[in-house]
Design brief:
82% of the residues lie in helices and 0% in strands. The longest helix is centred in the N-terminal third of the chain and has 69 residues.
Length: 274
């Protein structure tokens, strides 16, 4: 039995119990009224029975209505919290990816490349958790929004999968090159330190960075980034726009129908990265 069926069953039991609590004393009052000869007492018992029935039924119906309102409020709050958490997860992934795009070309080292690619593996886990949450638990979220955001997040995950698979296939070779680079750089710097007449530091080898830069997916990621913008940033912006509009619908600030045409008109800055 799901939560909704359980709540409906609970309301039915509450209403039945209220009816029994009202009807049994009312029936007793009427039964006693029939058996007494005092007309005034009989009228009093009948009036008490009628009052009890109407007051009890009204109270029971009011209780059911209040329970309905409370259940709707809980459902709305849960849905709003769910959407807010998904937005936060997407923002966290974007922050990790943006950091990698800056640090890898800034450090130009295999060590930083390895650290940032491991962070992107963690980001992929986060995206997959988002997909599982959308597929398994999205009560109160519009079905079209759920389906579209799931599709867009999968596109983001596919892009990161390409980067991390490239990392898996090339990191050992690059790490070996890095060790050779470090020994040659250390020798050059030692010569520079031992020659006080030299004022300009030596130019260090760039073969490791050249090898890194030749990785096609990484080159796109830290360069012009056409695939990155199409396969990662654009889906992120669209997914964030869908979620923000869904959050507005859940909270009642804008009807769902008026949001349909807005979902693809927001700029990337408006849609995400807040």
């Amino acid at each position: 039995m799901d939560a909704r069926s359980f709540e409906a069953s609970g309301r039915r039991r509450t209403l039945i119990a209220a009816c029994l609590l009202v009807c049994v004393p009312a029936a007793l009052a009427i039964g006693i009224g029939w058996s007494v000869s005092d007309i005034e007492l009989r009228k009093t018992l009948y009036a008490a029975a009628i009052t009890l029935v109407f007051a009890g039924l009204f109270g029971g119906l009011l209780k059911v209505q209040l329970d309905e309102v409370a259940a709707f409020k809980r459902k709305r709050e849960d849905a709003a919290s769910f959407v807010t958490n998904v937005l936060a997860d997407l923002k966290g992934v974007f922050d990790q990816v943006a950091r990698a795009r800056i640090l890898i070309p800034a450090h130009q080292s295999v060590a930083t490349y390895g650290d940032e690619m491991r962070a992107l593996i963690t980001a992929r886990v986060q995206l997959r958790n988002v997909v599982r949450a959308l597929e398994r638990r999205a009560d109160g979220v519009d079905e079209e929004t759920r389906s579209e955001v799931t599709r867009l997040v999968r596109r983001m995950d596919d892009f990161l999968e390409g980067l991390t698979c490239e990392f898996r296939d090339n990191y050992k070779r690059l790490s070996d090159q890095q060790r050779g680079y470090e020994k040659r750089a250390e020798a050059l710097l030692k010569q520079f330190a031992e020659d006080p007449s030299r004022q300009t530091p030596p130019e260090l080898p760039v073969f490791v960075w050249n090898s890194l830069s030749e990785l096609p997916r990484l080159a796109d990621f830290i360069g012009p980034a056409n695939d990155y913008r199409i396969q990662f940033e654009a889906p992120l912006d669209d997914a964030s726009a869908w979620l923000r509009n869904e959050l507005a619908r859940i909270l009642g600030s804008t009807p769902l129908g008026s949001l349909r045409g807005q979902r693809h008109t927001q700029t990337p800055t408006e849609a995400s990265r807040a």
